[in-house]
Amino acid sequence: MAGQVIVDRLLRFSRVCNRTVIESLVGSARTNDVKAKLLVVDDDADVRGLLDYVFCGAGFDVTLAATGIEGVEKARQLRPDVVLLDIMLPDIDGFTVAELLRRTAITARVPVIILSAHAGVSVQARGVECGVRRCLVKSAGIERIVADVTEALKEGAPS
To answer: End-to-end distance of the chain based on CA atoms, in angstroms?
Structure first.
């Protein structure tokens, strides 16, 4: 039920937020005419669908995963520019996914952003331990989510 409330809020916000606003936040998700690759890992099909719609519209090449293991496998295959990751997944949690990505050479430097219904102090602290770039609450609104993904893309991989 809580997941549906978050989806409803995001959908309501996305109706208010037009494509021009999102595109202005993103600027351009392209580098030399190559789309930036975003991997979205979330078990909620509605959230995945909304994020796919918004980020594809903003010029990203979006790949979706419904489980943590699927997310790790796709990250290793596709080498995304940014990973947007839920914490509560059906197989392994998002923190474990982030740790697995950090331990693999080809994904170790990919910026990871936690996007979850829970983003309190303990989530933030655990995220830092796992090498997560940012922790966002899903109810933060789509403009904030787009802005943070775009900022992570501009910052590039951590040194």
So the answer is: 40
Architecture of the domain spanning 2-155? 3-Layer(aba) Sandwich (3.40)
Closest residue by Cα to residue 146 from 26, 28, 49: 26
Average pLDDT per block of 10 residues along the chain, 159 residues long: 54 51 50 81 96 94 98 97 96 96 96 86 87 89 92 74
pTM, to two decimals? 0.81
Residues 143/58, Cβ–Cβ less than 8 Å: no
Tokens for 116, please give them: 């979850």
User: What are residue 104's phi and psi, to 5 degrees?
Assistant: -105, 125
Domain ranges of the chain: 2-155
